[in-house]
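Sat 14:20. Reprocessing the chain from the morning session after the first attempt stalled halfway. Input below, unchanged.
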Amino acid sequence: MKANANGSPHQNRISVIGSPSIDDSISQSPEEAPTIAKKCISFITEWIIRAALCVLCWSLLWSICGPIALPPQSPLFSLLIIWITAYALGQCCLPFSLPPLLGMMIAGIILSNIPGNVIVLDSKISSSLRSIALTIILLRAGLGLDPKMIKSLSGVCFRLAFIPCLVEAVAIAITTHLIIGFPFQWGLLLGFVVGAVSPAVVVPAMIDLQQQGYGIEQGIPSLVIASSSVDDVLAITGFDVVLSFAFVRPDSSLVWNLVKGPGEALIGLIMGTLTGIFLWYFPRCSWKDLDSEETFDQFTANCQRFALTLTIGLASVFITNYLDIGGIGPLAALVVTFVAAIRWRPLNIDSQIEDGLKIAWLIFEPFLFSLIGAEIKFSQLKLDYLFPVTLCLIISLGFRCLASFLVLFGSELNLREKFFIAISWLPKATVQAAIGPVALDLARSRGDQQAIENGILVLTVAILSILLTAPIGAVLIKLSAPKLLRKPATKNTFEMQVS
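Finished this time. Tokens:
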């Protein structure tokens, strides 16, 4: 028996951490290797358990809520059906190396467009579920941000958040005006609707890449996650400002709309920082506590810490939405875990909170993407403009990608990494689903027929942007990351060769 560090592919390896290597699994005897029958039994057993859980959950809803949980056209039963369908189609995407969100969005699109209103969704409940899911993913994103990388890439982060969004907004305004004769003011409004990147698509993808080790030394996941939040604030601010011009509203002022977005971002940053510092001390989180002889129940403390983290994030989002200052909440949710993790990380507390948030995400992920898909109603699509506006979208996306690529010059990223970030800046979903119908709703409330037609076109393009970019962008991120990003160099492990 002799030590070897060369790593020949024909050697039996034993890792120092006690986990078998790939070569060990290859060299297993046929008796030890899992058979097809065992895999089939395991698969069937797992799905029987899932089906039983779904039936039991619906039984509980029915026993507690009574008739409103019974089919057909029951809001509670509709939510259960859409969750089950979204989860099942999401799982069907995995064998093809496609992101589950693709199947989940397809489930929402199909169910919401079945004739006869088979699925009845309450708009307020749907919006609340989407907000909960988005809050969870933002809390997870904050835990994954690297403070050192954010500091070193602050200039790049600012450029990536602002320039591509503004370039795409102007490109949409110009192309729609030239190709379909859309008023420039409404075109700019449309540009800010489609100019926002979707955290619901981008952030989970970046978290997955971070866990796999792709691009972490260059800070790429942290850069994309941080920039996406600021990008959304800019898009929503621009939308509010242009909307105030398109509709001269007596209850709004230009000055307020100009300062509202930056003000909300600043308040969200301060609020998230203060609550993050609060989580440093409540529950206790210090090295002295861990080194002392007094009893300190880490499990109870972590449960309290998780509950506080989740409720702070949810309260930030829902309360600010209620007060019509919705730009504060998402940024505060991102910052609170980012700040808290500065103290948690040396004690490995952040990974335990991440485990709890991961479970919550597994529950709410099907709701988020299926309900975004459910916003896409084929009856609302303005088919006459389908080809021209698709062309406008493709042209503007080209300008966005080019701008995203160019703003990264001056950083230490190589060409492949710059190209990857440009790709990751494509997906759209959450903001478009949220503000896409706003102009149309406002036009209908005023009875302005021309504004209603313009609003329908804005909604049509918002829907098309989701259909084109969310699934394609998610697939491109997943497939291109292993080819374009670098992993950190792995340390040599002790290996033993059986002679």
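Strands lie at 2-3, 496-497.
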